[in-house]
Amino acid sequence: MTKRTIGLVQMRTGVDPARNLDDAEALIREAAGEGASLVMTPETTHLMQRDGDTLFDVVRTPEADPAIPRFSALARELEIDLLAGSLALAGPDGRAVNRSHLFGPDGSLKAVYDKIHMFDVKIGPDETWSESTNYKPGDRAVLADVGGDVLGLTICYDLRFAYLYRRLAQAGATMLAVPSAFTRPTGRAHWEVLLRARAIETGSFILAPAQGGAHEDGRKTWGRSMVVGPWGEIVAALDHDEPGVLLAEIDADAATKARERIPALAGDRDFAGPDPLKR
Q: Minimal CB count within 10 Å: which of 46, 99, 149, 207?
């Protein structure tokens, strides 16, 4: 397939998974009703909980979590590819995993991806995050076929690590998913710039559904869900952090053309150094 309509779901996820799933389903149905054949939700779609103790009281294993069969059934009913941008699930080592699930139009689970890069940062004196305390990082990049096009899976903070996107594009991805929950300070400063940079560097479509607004657990996210084209152009974007749906028509041939014009993905060279400076 070349041309397709993408639907990005923007949410304001809270602390009640059941209510969050109802909110997500309503927006997914809205996107599919507007003609989207590929619909994506943001990071931590069904639970936004920064308190570790409370998080582990709520998260379930993949086998027990109701979100997975519910999204599977929804994809099958609507006959769409559906990316649950990420779900917080109980992992095997006492920590949770931050995991994307891609369901096909028949409801099958086509791919899963665990977020590789953990959001361990100190944004300012009053805002520190240590995602690796509660979440186990993934260790494998993932591609999936979506109606004949190749989708590379990433999550939020992965966006700052260009080598992941390059590897996915070199392996065949023409679309790169970035379901996110960017903080307001980093979103205001870096969200659009980083999305456009990853698109330009890889000659790919960047599909970025986001969380937005003030959440029940106390965090505040940036919103501004966005689709960026392979030449770095903004194809479609929301200009707010309210829940809603962003629709965009994309043509996968545009990625091929961008890569023909600037074949940077084929230009890797080995090089030495640099040697550390002595101070």
A: 149
What is the distance between the alpha carbons of residues 221 and 201, in angstroms, rounded to a whole number?
A: 26
Query: Residue 22 maps to which CATH number?
Result: 3.60.110.10
Residue that is written with structure tokens 């917080």 in the block? 88
Check if 278 is active-site.
no
Q: Give the length of the chain.
A: 279
Is residue 275 in some structural domain? no
Per-residue DSSP letter, 188: I
**In-domain check, residue 278:** no
Q: Residues 110, 115, 131, 136: which is the catalytic one?
A: 115
pLDDT digits (tens, 9 = 90+) for 71-106: 999 999 999 999 999 999 999 888 999 999 999 999
Active site residue 79: no
Half-sphere exposure (Cβ direction) of 155: Cα atoms closer than 13 Å? 33
**Count of domains observed in the chain:** 1
Phi-psi region of 213 (alpha: psi -120 to 50; beta: other; left: phi over 0): left
Whether residue 236 is predicted with pLDDT greater than 70 in this model: the reply is yes
**pTM, to two decimals:** 0.96
